Amino acid sequence: MSDRALKDRPFGSYERSLAFRYIRAKREHGGVAIVSILSLVGIMLAVAALIIVMSIMNGFQSEMISRVLGNSGHVRLFPEAFSKTEIDQLEVKIEALPEVDSFVPLVEGAVLASAPSRAEGAYVRGIRAEDALKLPYLQGELYNGSTAGFGEGKFGGDGILINERMARRLGVYQGGKLTLISPAGTSSPGGVIPRRKAYTVLGVFQIFAGNANPLDDVLILMPLEQAQLLFNSRDSYPAVEIKIKDPQSVDRFATNLAAEHLPVGMPYQTWKRMNRGIVGALEVERSMMRLIFAILITITALNIITGIVMLVKNKGRDIAILRTMGASRATVLRVFLLIGGILGFSGMFLGVFFGVMFCIFIEPIQDFLNMVTGQPLWNPDVYGLPYIPAELDWKEVSFAGLYAVMVSVVVSILPAWNAARLDPVEALRSE
């Protein structure tokens, strides 16, 4: 072994070859102890579990957000103090932004919906016909009836669309009549006279099964002009909803929107702010789950200490010979750090691979398990989803991988330091 080899650069080929040689050596020849192999497997399982759990949580979070938002936009403006002309000009400006999917003026309010057999509270959303027809749940065939004729006629016509659950409760379907009574009525000496008008049900829609937004359960869609008459807001829009391509970036988008595009004094709200309780609970849940699995990875990686300590004990003679031939303490230190890093990296790589593959192929895996067990492990009727949702977040994958490698190297420092401090004379004498 040449002096040149012993003076190889830090973490160079010589040190790496030593590390791999010690790892590959048979146990009886002083190779890596079985406990280190078990720690590698443990890191693999912990990393894979972290990726799988966080991906499934991401999937459920996306579904939860979709259901909480339901029919709503991501940013809501409240432009009551601004004229219709100003809002129309603002629409042209905002729809030109690359992040924006839609700009939808709305007139909304609570009403009493009266059918021949029953009456109950409802929530009316006045919307332009062209905006209504872009709604996902109005695409294709409806639960009953159709969107044909919606928004047609004087002041948008008298045709409305209602939620399937409300239709069942009131017993009103396509062609039926529904009388809506609005509290925004006409002032008189005797008080406010509520506005009252009968509308024809054109169609019955279903947003999705098991939706989590209670307003969607009592939703009525009405042409915008009719809603302005019903709620006495002819010359303004009480609300405007903006939908963007990435709902998670809504805070950054809203800040830029208010600073650069909105008129001074126009109030707004983001969907995160309006649902801060649910959003906060989801973030806490994610953080705690990430912490639990990080602790699990750390505990698993601690086994590497035992493995390297045993390796140092078995390789004491080799270390002594290296030191007498000119190898520095730093060289010995780096060799055993490399062993810990290799074990951690191997466990991380396998964990990331199996975790990502599981998330990508979760549907066929679920089908296979259902076939093997003979019964559904995931009941779509209960959860309203055909499969367990899994949505990979590469930031989470990177965190799991980097953390596993980092912890493996850190826990290797102490036994590597002890190996570097080994007295070659004492080591050879004890042989």
Q: What is the percentage of strand-forming residues?
A: 15-25%
Distance between the termini: 22 Å
SSE-based structural type:
alpha+beta
Going across the biggest sheet, name each strand in turn.
Answer: 2-3-8-5-7-6
Largest sheet: 6 strands, mixed, barrel
Kindly state the percentage of residues in helix.
40-55%
The low-pLDDT segments are none
Number of domain units? 2
Average pLDDT figure? 82
Verbal overview:
With about 425 residues, this protein is an alpha+beta fold. The chain folds into two domains: about 5-65 and about 280-430, no CATH class; about 80-265, no CATH class. Helix content is about 55%, strand content about 15%. The protein is built from 17 helices and ten strands. The chain has helices at about 5, 15-25, 35-70, 85-95, 130, 165-170, 215, 225-230, 250-260, 270-275, 275-315, 315-325, 330-360, 360-375, 380-385, 395-420, 425-430, and strands at about 75, 100-115, 120-125, 145, 160-165, 175-190, 190-205, 220-225, 240-245, 270. The chain has a six-stranded mixed β-barrel. A hairpin with a 2-residue loop joins strand 6 (about 175-190) and strand 7 (about 190-205). Helix 12 (about 315-325) packs across helix 17. The longest helix has about 40 residues, at about 275-315. The radius of gyration is 33 Å and the shape is elongated. The two termini are about 20 Å apart.
